[in-house]
Amino acid sequence: MTPARATGYKSADELPADAREALAATLLSLADNKRILGMRYGEWILGAPTLEAGIACSAMAQDEWGHGRILYATLKDFGTDPGPLEHERESDAYLSSELLDAPVEEWPEFLTLNLLFDAALSVQVEALTSSRYEPILFKTRKLLEEERFHFEHGRGWAMRLAETAAGRNALNTAFRKALGPCLRWFGRDDAPFGRALVEAGIADGAGDALRERWVARIAPVLREANLGVLGEELESGLELDWSSWSAGRRRSGEGGPHPETLARIRGDRNRSMLMD
Amino acid sequence: MGHLSGERLYEVFARQKREDRLEHIGTVSAPNAELARVYAWKTYDEATWFEMVVAPRDAFRAVNRDEVPFTLHPAEAP
């Protein structure tokens, strides 16, 4: 780690052009996903199965919005003003996963976001923890400390639901639907995007390498939750459908977060009173 | 207080500095120790804790009194 830092990049201007573009897109993707994930967590402050779970959702929502804010701010170094990014973009400009487009209606679906997708975001952040791009190093530590508890929340609830056959079936159905989007989220292994980050020492992995890290984290939890078959399928490598994949937006399918979601995230209705 | 089936009460202890004593700071209800840890950390986040631990309330054994339930909250005593 020390030699890497000794030859680190102190600002985005010093980065090779392809790595600069790839890192800015990675940071924006993380920021967008965390912003909307925070919204989805926040939607469960009311309606979670227990008061404690509601409090946890509230805290996780705050964490994600904080992470989003920090990540948007990192883009200043790339010459991008975070204000318009946070308040002026429409749905099809968001680099967010299709898993986050609509509010989730059921607790097992919520757990796909909390356990599976949030962990995918963390695996991507972890890949930047020994980055040669120094400004990001100070941002990742607290973020990942908070994420430990998000993962434990998802894991604890998966184990709880798995205690009954009905809960296990519901989890199995919800998780099965979300595995593809989570696995694809790391991008194709031969994407120039990921290669540029690894070659410049900005990330210590991309594509398949990150997918494998995510699988190594999720499969043991599936086994703990008596979803061993799903865990084995995951470990043996699921066939991924890339037919509608957009590498630039890191998602499958057109569209983006529902307009109502965005209007609430941006605070459109009440913000309009404060504008010139 | 009603509880969902499978829920247990966990007592939460914490200290802000290494040299402090662990103090009882509250209670959470959780179905397992994993969630008890998360709930404790996320619910009692008013300080930057050096250390926080949780233990199921029913792990405590009365020493000088016979009656149960054992309580750490004087206000909860009958």
Question: What would you say this structure looks like, in words?
Answer:
The complex is a heterodimer of chains A (276) and B (78). With 276 residues, chain A is an all-alpha fold. Chain A has a single domain (15-267), classed as Ferritin. Chain A contains twelve helices and two strands. In chain A, strands 1-2 form a two-stranded antiparallel ribbon. In chain A, strand 1 (245-246) and strand 2 form a beta hairpin. In chain A, helix 2 runs antiparallel to helix 3. Chain A is globular. With 78 residues, chain B is an alpha+beta fold. Chain B has a domain at 9-59. Chain B contains one helix and three strands, in the order E-E-H-E. Chain B has one helix at 33-43; strands spanning 8-15, 23-30, 51-56. A three-stranded antiparallel beta sheet of chain B has the order 2-1-3, covered by helices on one side. In chain B, a hairpin with a 7-residue loop joins strand 1 (8-15) and strand 2 (23-30). Chain B is flat, with a radius of gyration of 13 Å. The two termini of chain B are 14 Å apart. The A-B interface holds A 49-53, 55-56, 59-60, 149, 152-153, 155-157, 159-160, 163 and B 4, 6-7, 28-32, 34-35, 37-39, 41-43, 45.
